[in-house]
Each structure stands twice: as structure tokens, then as C-alpha cells.
Amino acid sequence: MGEKKRAIWVFGDFRNYFQNRVTLQLISKAREMAGMIGGEVCVVVLGSQTAEYVSEYIAHGADKIYLTEDPRLVEYSMETYSFLMERLARREKPEIILVGATSFGREFAPHVAKRLGTGLTADCIDLDIDEKGLLVQRAPSFGGKLIAETVIPERRPQMATVRPGIFQELPHDFSRTAEIVHVPMPDNMPSDRVHIISREPSPAKEDHLEQAKIVVCGGRGMGSKKKFSRLYELAELLGGEVGATRPVVYLNWANREALVGQAGKQIRPVILFSFGISGAIQHTASIRKSCFIIAINKNPKAPIMKMADVAIVADAGQICNALINELKQRIRR
Ligand SMILES: Cc1cc2nc3c(=O)[nH]c(=O)nc-3n(C[C@H](O)[C@H](O)[C@H](O)COP(=O)(O)OP(=O)(O)OC[C@H]3O[C@@H](n4cnc5c(N)ncnc54)[C@H](O)[C@@H]3O)c2cc1C
């Protein structure tokens, strides 16, 4: 028998579209890292009627699926799920376990880490493998003032939760195959202390901002709610979405869904317009995967100007209006 491969596990968090995407994003990153350590990518799927998710995970890069299918797993249950994960991890000894920082993942991962007696870095914004083959977990620290790098040299598995929108999922490849390991539910399941009486889905909100190819982001330098609202017009003309900084959300110029940064969303557009934004780390940590940044700020020394590909020293409102006029004219032509 060959030597067991070092395994990177991803928790299959499939219960809604948004969470499904973060699992695919993690599979993609796990693939890249598995290449660096000569390992394999395994996805743990606990649920009922999961066939379509399993094939989705395989098509997106999983080498192996650990699958527990049981009607008792229809609902997420912290106790049941963390019990099953602990049991499987003790048996299979993965090197790394990655969990999406979804509402369930943020609760589930620390439970599993505690049960396994290992470390966990929460809310990572980047992952890497160092020269010793250890998982480097990067997460904002000290209120977002710096990015901490954490490694777990002794304990195993190395665990991290990762925010949605950081890594890019791999394209579908339906020719891929994977091994499926069926893991039956054990007889000695702990009884669940939580009983779900009823469920009501909250109204679905599609997340356009994190997927958008063009984002028009505005900060306090836009000056007023009225001026800020022009950014929506610009975004529409460009076929993009509007993002905002925290002060803008606090000032009620934009709603919470538009917040980009440590406390909000990660974006990775092809083109990012940054209007009247200073470039605080809590904001820039979430835009650094943008391909091309055009910053407009009246202060040439604002930190955003250093990271921009094009830095325009000007009044943000004026440039926004000029772009709107130009685009409208082009449409008319
Ligand atoms: C724990 C924590 C979490 C945080 N999370 C987030 C987060 O998720 N997202 C986030 O954005 N922030 C976050 N912040 C806040 C962050 O530190 C900054 O305060 C914020 O990003 C600044 O927003 P801003 O650039 O819009 O405003 P400012 O810092 O006030 O910058 C305004 C900019 O506009 C420029 N300007 C002014 N007038 C004009 C004009 N007429 N034309 C052009 N430019 C002009 C100025 O030169 C300046 O650079 C967080 C802070 C903490 C402590």
C-alpha cells in the first residue's frame, strides 16, 4: 500500500447559494495548496440528499468526498455535526481543515477545533503554505490595524475559517472523478439538545457586489448623500455595483449590504473605482484582489493613491459627473 497522502479537508457547507460558493472557493485554494504539499483535497459532506452538491464539489476540484447521508442530518445541528466531524478527523487525520466563515461555519469550526484539541484562526483573508509545509493563516488583528500570520506547528489538524469572496472557484470540469467514501452514522450518536420546531427562510438577497466585475466604491470624500447617489447612476452605466466605506454606511448614504472591508464584503472586480476613499487597512484588505484600481482623491498622499493603478488628484464628485456625462454621450452616439 502506498503512503497516505496529506489531506486538506474542506467542510461542505451547501445549504444555500452563498455558502455553497465559499465551499467552492475553498476547494480551489485547497487544490492549489495540495499541489504544494503533494496532498489531496477532500470534502466532508454531512446531510441528506446531497448528490448534486457532491458532483458539484468533484467538478470543482475535490479528489475525495467523505459522505454521511442520513435523514437525521437534514437540519444543521452543532452537536451532531461537530461530533461526526471530530470522529472522522480522529480516524483519518487530515493535515488541514478549512471551513467557510458562514454563520454556521463560524460556530461549527471552533466546536470542532475544541473537540480535537487543536488551534483555529477565524475569519482568514488569505492562506498559504510556508517552506516547512505549514498552513500560514492570515487574518486581520488588533481591530484590523495589522494582518496577523498564524501557523500551528504542533497540533493537528491545522484549522481555519475563511471569508467568502477571497478565493476564486475553479471552473466546472465534469470530466473529473473522485473517490467517495461512505461514512455511516454511528449508533452512539449523542442526543441533540436542540429541537427545531419550525423554519422560516429570510428573504433571499443575491450578492452581486462580491461577484461584480466592475465596482464603483465611494467614501466620505463624496461629501453628501446626494453626491454619493450619483455613484449608483455611474455603476448602472458601467454595468457594475456600488460599494461603500464604513463612514458612508454610518452616515446612511448607503446601506449595510454595500459595505466593503473587514466588517463587510471582500470584492475582486476587474475594475474598481475608488471615489473619495482614504484607504484605511480595514477597507483595503478587502479590495487588494481587484485587478485594476482607479482612485480619485483630492489628497495625493492618501494611502489609496499608492495602491491605485491610476491615481487622479481631483474632486470625486466632479469626476463622477464627468464620467456619467461621457458615458451617456457615448450611448447616444
Ligand atoms: C474594527 C474596525 C473595522 C472597520 N471595518 C471597516 C470596513 O469594513 N470598511 C471600511 O471601509 N472601514 C472600516 N473601518 C473604518 C476604517 O478604519 C476607516 O475609518 C474608513 O475606511 C474610512 O472611510 P473613508 O475613506 O470613506 O473616510 P475618510 O478616512 O474620512 O477618507 C475620506 C477621503 O476622501 C478624501 N476627500 C475628501 N473630500 C474629497 C473630495 N471632494 N474629492 C475627492 N476626495 C476627497 C480625503 O482626502 C480622504 O482621503 C473599520 C475600523 C475599525 C476600527
Counted up, domains total 2
Q: N-to-C terminal Cα separation, in Å?
A: 70 Å
The biggest beta sheet is recorded as: 7 strands, parallel
Structural class: alpha/beta
Give the integer mean of the pLDDT values. Answer: 91
CATH class of the largest domain: Alpha Beta
Give the tags:
alpha/beta; Rossmann fold; single chain; 5-stranded parallel β-sheet; binds flavin-adenine dinucleotide; 333 residues; 15 strands; elongated
Outline of the structure:
The chain is α/β, with parallel strands linked by helices and 333 residues long. The protein is 31% helix and 23% strand.
Overall description:
The protein is an alpha/beta fold and 333 residues long. The protein folds into 2 domains: 7-182, HUPs (Rossmann fold, 3-Layer(aba) Sandwich); 209-332, 3-Layer(aba) Sandwich (Rossmann fold), CATH 3.40.50. The protein is 31% helix and 23% strand. It has 9 helices and 15 strands. It has helices at residues 17-37, 51-59, 78-92, 103-116, 225-238, 246-250, 281-284, 303-307, 316-332; strands at residues 7-11, 40-47, 64-69, 96-100, 120-124, 126-129, 135-141, 146-150, 158-162, 179-182, 214-218, 241-244, 271-275, 292-297, 310-313. Strands 5-9-4-1-2-3-10 form a 7-stranded parallel sheet, with helices on both faces. Strands 12-11-13-14-15 form a 5-stranded parallel sheet. Strands 6-7-8 form a 3-stranded antiparallel sheet. Helix 5 links the parallel strand 11 (214-218) and strand 12. Helix 3 crosses helix 4 (103-116) and helix 5 runs parallel beside helix 9 (316-332). The longest helix is centred in the first third of the chain and has 21 residues, at 17-37. The protein is elongated and about 70 Å long. Flavin-adenine dinucleotide binds at residues 143-144, 219-221, 223, 245-248, 259-264, 276-278, 280, 282-283, 296-299, 302, 315-316. Residues 143-144, 219-221, 223, 245-248, 259-264, 276-278, 280, 282-283, 296-299, 302, 315-316 line the site of flavin-adenine dinucleotide.
